[in-house]
Amino acid sequence: MLSMTAFTGAEGKGSNIVLGYTTGDGASYHSLTSYHSYLNAIAPDTYAFDQKGNIIGETPKKQLSYAKKKKIKTWAVISNYNEAIQDFDGNLASRVMTNKTARKHFADQLVKLAKKQSFTGINIDFEAVKPGDRAKYSSLIQYVANTLKKHKIKTMVSVPAKSADHRQDDWSWPFDYAKIGKYADYVQVMTYDEHGVWSSPGSVASTNWIKGTLKYAVKTIKANKVIMGIPSYGNDWDLTDQHNSKMLQWNELQALKKKVKAKPVYNKKSGSMTFSYKDGRKHKHVVWYEDEKTIQAKSRLAKQYKIAGVSVYALGHESASFWKAIQKGLK
After folding, report:
1. CA separation (Å) from 255 to 196, 204, 249, 277, 293?
2. 166 neighbors 125 (Cβ within 8 angstroms)
3. 123 has which bridge partners?
4. Is the pTM of this model over 0.90?
5. Out of 83, 205, 245, 284, which residue is the most buried by the measure of CB atoms under 10 Å away?
6. What is residue 219's predicted lDDT score, i.e. its pLDDT?
7. CA 262/CA 248 separation, integer angstroms
8. Could you read off the pLDDT of 143-201 as tens digits, one per residue?
9. CA angle 30, 228, 62 (to 5 degrees)
10. What's residue 5's pLDDT?
11. From CA 298, how far away is CA 319, in angstroms rounded?
12. Contact yes or no for 221/177 (Cβ under 8 A)
């Protein structure tokens, strides 16, 4: 297994950030304790906020305590996920950008949280930001980063993947890479979900799609601030009934392959794996996923583009072979 000395700290010269996103469940804690030697940072994705800028959510104390013991850096993920609507909330994001009282309270609460739990930094993960809020969002990042910096707390911002700045792309347009990259210490690019169960079947993260995103990212943001996302999941499309399509975790994929006696094929164009099968109701399914070889090849892109490192979404259901593949790719 990889010793922590291989990573001389996230900002050390020639070192790679290997960050694992965690949830508050037991599976994430089990992954952390099992594979901690492959990681040098974790980011608990357990916090959100309300209309007034109050931080809400559970602190996974066991995870933080274990990470501290193993000298693993910790980042608090703050998202605009709204439990009431079970989705990311663009209106909620707008509120902390436009209401000065809420914005100040939001930033002050982040400082308070980081200090109380000894977080290395804050990871802002706003999604479904409104296209008209593009400039306001950059301004919020500048304000939050400046506030945190006064207290020696770092700022990371998660952004959707894109290979160009297209105004007509409502999902990615609100994120001004250049400005966000100027204010944040790190920009975590979500190079996954190229395809999902909401779309037609395809790779979660094809090689050329990742390359296009990284090429654009390092052109607009300093390369040593960029972190590339790696998925620990795949997707299973039910071609007869789309409602039965679902995301599959790494260990679920291994079990399904055995169950249906799958014959996976390497798709050269995407650099990903795929197979088909029929279920008990004679529905045809198509599965797209990554295996150890494709994970290793995609991790190697971090080295190719000389970026800060990689992040994995999410800890909880991987195997040692998954982490070894990342380790080999980053060598």
Report:
1. 20, 19, 10, 14, 18
2. no
3. 77, 156
4. yes
5. 205
6. 98
7. 15
8. 999 999 999 999 999 999 999 999 999 999 999 999 999 999 999 999 999 999 999 99
9. 25
10. 32
11. 17
12. yes
Are 179 and 263 in contact by the 8 Å Cβ rule? The answer is no
Give Cα separations from 172 to 20, 66, 132, 159, 310 (angstroms): 23, 35, 12, 8, 20
Q: How far apart are CA 51 and CA 106, in angstroms?
A: 10
Distance CA 272, CA 268 (A): 7
Write out the two tokens for 52: 């007034």
What is the residue type of 104? K
Catalytic, out of 58, 83, 127, 290: 127
pLDDT of residue 168: 96
Give a three-class secondary structure readout of the chain. CCCHHHCCCCCCCCCCEEEEEECCCHHHHHHHHHHHHHCCEEEECCEEECCCCCEEECCCHHHHHHHHHCCCEEEEEEECEECCCCEECHHHHHHHHHCHHHHHHHHHHHHHHHHHHCCCEEEEECCCCCHHHHHHHHHHHHHHHHHHHCCCCEEEEEEECCCCCCCCCCCCCCCCHHHHHHHCCEEEEECCCCCCCCCCCCCCCCHHHHHHHHHHHHHHCCHHHEEEEEECEEEEEECCCHHHCEEEEHHHHHHHHHHCCCCCEEECCCCEEEEEEECCCCCEEEEEECCHHHHHHHHHHHHHCCCCEEEEECCCCCCHHHHHHHHHHHC
**Tokens 């607009």 — which residue?**
220
Tokens 């707008």 belong to residue: 94
Q: Which two tokens stand for residue 242?
A: 């789309």
- Which tokens in the block code for residue 18? 């290997």
- Our answer to whether residue 83 is catalytic in this structure is no
Task: Judge contact between 118 and 128, C-beta under 8 A.
Answer: no
pLDDT of residue 13: 39
Which pLDDT score is estimated for 15? 74
